[in-house]
Amino acid sequence: MANPFVHVELNTTDPEKAKAFYGKLFDWKLEDMPMGSGHTYTMINVGEGTGGGLMKHPMPGAPSSWLAYVLVEDVAAATKKAQSLGATVVKDVTEVPDAGWFSIIADPTGAVLGLWKSK
Q: Which domains, and CATH codes, for the chain?
C-alpha cells in the first residue's frame, strides 16, 4: 500500500479520563511527552500495528474524536492536491520538531483526515 495509515490520534476533552479508560481497556503503553506551554502529548504504543497518541482537544468546545493520519511523500503537495479535489484545509502544513510534518483536511463529505510525512 503506497499510503498506509500510520498514526491514530485522540483529541479529547479530558486527557486524564481518556488515559484511565484506555489504559484499563487495552494493553497499551501510554507515555506522556511535554509539548511546551504546559501541554502534554501522550504517545500510545500498541505493540503490534499502528500506534498513536492523545491530547487535549485543540479546539475548545469541540467533542472528543479520533483522527487517522495517512503517510504521504510530500505533505504540502498532498494538501494542495486534496484541496484541488474539493477538500477543505483544516490545518495547513505544520512541522513537529524532530518528527516530521502534518496537515489536516476535511474531504468533500466532511470527513477529517491527517496527512503525515516523517523526517
A: 1-69 (3.10.180.10), 72-119 (3.10.180.10)
